[in-house]
Write a structure and sequence with these properties.
The complex is a heterohexamer, with 2 copies of chain A (130 residues), 2 copies of chain B (102 residues) and 2 copies of chain C (145 residues). Chain A is an alpha/beta fold and 130 residues long. In chain A, 37% of the residues lie in helices and 20% in strands. In chain A, strand 1, helix 1 (16-29) and strand 2 (33-39) form a beta-alpha-beta unit. Chain B is of the alpha/beta class and 102 residues long. Chain B has a single domain (3-101), classed as DsrEFH-like (Hypothetical Protein Ychn, Chain: A). Helices cover 28% and strands 22% of the residues of chain B. Chain B contains 4 helices and 5 strands, in the order E-H-E-H-E-H-E-H-E. In chain B, strands 4-3-2-1-5 form a 5-stranded parallel beta sheet. Chain C is an alpha/beta fold and 145 residues long. Chain C has helices at 30-41, 75-78, 93-98, 129-137, and strands at residues 16-21, 47-52, 89-92, 110-113, 119-122, 124-127, 141-144. A 5-stranded parallel beta sheet of chain C has the order 6-3-2-1-7. In chain C, strands 4-5 form a two-stranded antiparallel sheet. The longest helix of chain C is centred in the first third of the chain and has 12 residues, at 30-41. The radius of gyration of chain C is 15 Å and the shape is globular. Classes of the chains: A alpha/beta (130), B alpha/beta (102), C alpha/beta (145). Chains A and F meet through helix 3 of A and helix 3 of F.
């Protein structure tokens, strides 16, 4: 079965990203396909490579990046939500005259149409948020 | 064409669980995750509402979240079943759609 | 409001999509962001409708003016939904009543009905809780905000 | 040695306003800001609780947040006063401490 | 848990600080972060106490095990508060009752009383809602989480 | 009178940062002093200079930076919360082997002791959050 996942909150403050990650792992372990993970609202904050969580805590950005690499997941960060919150790739940084970018490996920035498309392509959409 | 309802907030803090229970239909399932698992406790101010809903649809709690809150099966309202993340996936696959009561 | 991208989907796929709005506007961004997706979804030629229940009904209250809080007032956009052929806004009666609201407190939102000589029809339909549950159970996808 | 209580969430969605009203004391003030201003409406499911609290302490709503939600003074429960951001500052200065019911 | 910084304050300032805990643990980070500030505050030699009301009472429930959700289990830290001379944890009786909890469901938290030959005393004091309101009204600063 | 302000949420998702900013402006307009604005939890996300909000919306990071410059405000971002969420200054980025930093002008990164200190120095603490 094809799953689409929406993550509406950033890492650590809410459990949403943790729950979404566990759900994604369990779905893949059962042989399901994940057509896309769409990071929306504060969810875009999962996609910055500048995070330095404490040594004794989990690293959510790294966990998402690793899961994406292992299973070829499509991790999409909403472009408008990301711009508002300061999550940029090199192209976006250049376009907006910013001196740095921070997108994490395995994440890509794209439009809201990707969310609607996922809702159409997936058999089930599951949303994690506040 | 049933629905899996998910709720992730404590009913003592947010209206989501009560609202979800007001919209379930026979054949649906409702899964309490994250802070919502406390809504599955016996003898709370909301226990009667949850018990009544258990007669309409199947109620589940996510076991990992239950353990995190220091709860065990003995603390649960009768009839509520526990699932792990794999069981969550199975519930989502089994029902036609998922409504996340955020 | 947002750019529309060309859909890249197998042709003929037509799903019933419902956007479920349960949060008050302005205190959080969810109402605004739901509206952004709704507008984008219009380009995908699906069967789109919106549900307003719980605090989501406050999104449709008329006379919203955000000038003094300094945030964007997106309320007028609901009135433009008809231009995007989004013509079904279901509002839960019990949610209105609990909040001391009547239909007259909501913005008038209309659309032109192509099946009836483009006559203006109201887009808001006030429905009871049980009917809202039935409507939700008829959808292919529920997107929750 | 009174307290200014601030609440920023709708009572229909969160328990904060009701909890705050359960902890106010004579001489205190309670200010509804952001989404909490809808709790000041007449004829809601919570109006009776708010009206009862108005007899114990002074109730205020933040006018800029009121306007954003399409509300005006005529929609308010009797006795609730409006303040602007300057009035919010004055209330915080007047009372000995601020409790934010987040 | 966190590094302690040397306070840079006029000597002799001694305020009554109460940390007000109203949120359930694990679903959000607020309980953990409140605890971090509480531990830091010990270095400032103020009169610190903690209040647990509404869903905050769940923070003190015994037997919490976060292994399967993959997050940090900070619950044992409450039991170490006595070592930081934080000895007053007020828990609201009505909040417990509404949640089906009894005092026996909470972690045993104790401290050594220097005024009584270092005898172990319980740190948790269950108080009624009116008494909680009175305690709050006695503080100089309330920090809300 | 001396005010201390705590901001627990990032920009845009919640109104907290907007409300805090309006409160700060009003307090300064009335001649009060603001001893510190402490950005905690997701509040640290107010302090990244990489944000690009839409042209027709407000720019919260810039508003805070400008208010700080005009009134000499002390805007402190909690170091542990910032590390978790990827808000770093040049020194932090170097220390943790990151290839970019993103702290905004007028914000400084420091420890939680700064929050306790503000609570002691201020006559009133006001917290804005979720």
């Amino acid at each position: 079965m094809k799953f689409g996942i929406v993550v509406n909150e950033g890492p650590y403050t809410h459990q949403a990203s943790d729950s979404a990650l566990q759900f994604a792992r369990a779905a893949l372990a059962k042989g399901h396909e994940i057509v896309r993970v769409f990071f929306y609202n504060d969810g875009v904050n999962n996609g910055t490579r500048l995070t330095v969580p404490p040594q004794d805590d989990r690293n959510l950005q790294k966990s998402w990046s690793e899961l994406a690499a292992k299973h070829g997941l499509d991790l999409v960060v909403c472009i408008a939500a990301a711009q508002r919150r300061g999550v940029l790739d090199a192209g976006e940084a250049k376009r907006h005259g910013k001196d740095a970018d921070n997108i994490a490996p395995g994440f890509r920035i794209s439009g809201l149409g990707q969310l609607v498309e996922a809702a159409i392509l997936a058999d089930r959409m599951v949303t994690f948020g506040d | 064409m049933s629905t899996l309802h998910t709720v992730n907030k404590s009913p003592f803090e947010r209206a989501a669980l009560i609202s979800a229970l007001g919209h379930v239909r026979p054949g649906d399932a409702l899964l309490m995750i994250e802070d919502a698992v406390v809504g599955a406790r016996k003898r709370t101010a909301f226990a009667a509402v949850v018990e009544a809903a258990a007669k309409i649809c199947a109620l589940f709690v996510l076991a990992p979240d239950l353990a995190a809150r220091g709860m065990a099966e003995k603390d649960l309202i009768e009839g509520i079943k526990t699932v792990d993340y794999g069981g969550f996936v199975d519930l989502a696959a089994k029902h036609r759609r998922v409504q996340s009561w955020l | 409001m947002a750019e529309v991208e060309a859909p890249k989907l197998p042709s003929g796929v037509r799903k019933k999509l419902m956007f479920v709005n349960r949060k008050a506007p302005h205190g959080t961004i969810y109402a605004l962001e739901a509206l952004e997706v709704v507008l984008i979804s219009a380009a995908f030629e699906q069967e789109v409708c919106l549900a307003f229940l719980d605090d989501g009904v406050f999104q449709l209250v008329k006379g919203q003016n955000t000038q003094a809080i300094g945030t964007k007032n997106f309320a007028p956009t609901y009135r433009a939904l008809g231009d995007y052929e989004i013509t079904r806004l279901y509002v839960e009666r019990e949610s209105l009543a609990e909040r001391g609201l009547a239909t007259a407190d909501l913005m008038p939102i209309v659309h032109e009905d192509p099946d009836d000589a483009d006559e203006e029809k109201p887009s808001i339909q006030v429905v009871g809780r049980a009917e809202m549950a039935t409507l939700m159970a008829e959808q292919d996808v529920l997107l929750s905000f």
